[in-house]
Each structure stands twice: as structure tokens, then as C-alpha cells.
Amino acid sequence: MGPVNTGDRPQVVAHRGASAQYAENTRAAFLHAIAEGADAVEVDVHLSADRQLVCAHNFTVDKTSDGSGEIAEMSLNALRALDVHSWKNPELPEGYGSSAQQLITLPELLDIVIGADRGVDIALEMKHPSAFGHELDDAVLDLLTTRGWDPKDSSIRDTSSGEAITVTLMSFSPAALEHVLVRFPQLPPRHLCALFQRGQMEALYLVDDGRVGVAGPSQAYVRHHRWKVRRWLRHGIELNVWTVDEPEDVRYVVEVGARRITTNRPGAVRRLLESAEFSGAGTL
């Protein structure tokens, strides 16, 4: 099993959900991404002080809530007491949950994705450096295992519908990705993504030696290292570029050969990719 089949067009991955419209990594952002047609949702995961897997990008809550402090030093109940959405969009449409429901855990996000009325994959970033080290990675892997995750194809199957989603495990930390492979050596490389940007390229060697099958560079890295990208593609490495919001940038990364486009605006990017400009072609 592989990612959601999108035919010739690249997969649209909603960066922290539909984070152009709603606060990143919130229930509303993920639900809106699915409603807009995202093929996959991307999520960042931390451990709280009481070892709960929390969906959040930053290591502190200072910029994305009405509180302050390190996520690793706060309990889940303390985190849930914060307003994590009004800084971006105080309005929450019916069906997107209450203000108190916007901070969600990874188990809750899995429920949303698995329960969607169509196939939606998940790209899961383990946030490092974590105060808990590999305990974060183990917590993610243990949760996936309890949910029926099959490491042979990185799928989780909905027992009621029979539908399956594909999980891509990602990190900027090569040690985290290597830890995953130690625990699950049977996991195919195409379900591991090494993230990096200019000046933050420690995970490159995992891509170059084929242990990781998806390269996750920033746009800036791609623009300055076209030769490297061409080499990856020649060797069967898949390209997942972030964060791509503007039409001209979408055109560029498609031309380069990206098969996964991570964006804050999944609806707009999908509409562009399905427009006559791209119809019937994987590249410009």
C-alpha cells in the first residue's frame, strides 16, 4: 500500500491542517483540510509533561495561545485550558468543534483521519530535539501499533469500513528516523521522510544511502540544489517540498518533480493541480 492514489497529479499535503484559514494543528484546521480535499494532513507531535501525544508545532505555547510555557512541562489538562485558535481565527464553524476542543492529541487526530468519508493519509513529524528524547518516537510508534498499524506497508485499516490510510513518519532528526528503523526494520523507505532546509541538513545522508525514501526539503533548498534533486529522482527518491502556497511556486515544484506538495492552502493548491493547466500531465 502507498499514499492515496491521486493519478498523475502530486499529492496535496495540508501543512498543519488548512493553516492559512485556521490555527495550525487544531481540530478546525484538520477538519477544514479534509473538507477542502487534502490528500493527506501533516501534523507535528510533542509529548506533554504527562506523556500525552499533543499536536503542536512550537516547543512552547507562547505564540499560538493565550498562555505561555513549554509543552513538555505542561499537562494535557493545562494545555486544553488554553485558547489555541483565536490568535488566527476566532470564528469556528459548526462541526469544527468548540474552542475547548481545538487542542487535540494524536489519538484524536487518528480518529478524525480514519473516520473521514474518503481516504486521507497522515504525515507525522516527530518534533526534536525533544525533552524526552526517543521516548517521543516510541510513544508515536506504540500508539500506531495499538491502532493496528502494519509496518510492512505503514497502513492503518478501519475495521468497520475496511478502508486504510497510509502513515509517513518524518523528522528533522536523523536519530529519530534511525530509531524507527531499529524498531521496525521492515518499514519500507517510501514511508520515511527526512526533513531539512538550508543550514539544517543532518538527515541528508539517510536519503543518499536509501534508508529513507522521501526527501523533504524546503522550497529554498530545492531552488539552490537542483542538481541534488535531480540525482534523488534518478535514484527513485520521492520529493515532498514544503511549504508551497503560491501558484508560481506550485508550478515550479511540479516542474522540478515533486510528488507531494505540502501547503497551508490545500484547497487552492488542489484546484490548481486539477485545472486545465495541469490536466493530464505530471509536470509542466
UniProtKB/TrEMBL annotation:
Q: Which PROSITE patterns match?
A: GP_PDE
Q: Which GO terms describe its molecular function?
A: phosphoric diester hydrolase activity
- InterPro entries the UniProt entry points to: GP_PDE_dom (IPR030395), PLC-like_Pdiesterase_TIM-brl (IPR017946)
- Domain GP-PDE span(s) in chain numbering: 10-273
* GO biological process, any: lipid metabolic process
Name of the protein this chain belongs to:
Glycerophosphodiester phosphodiesterase
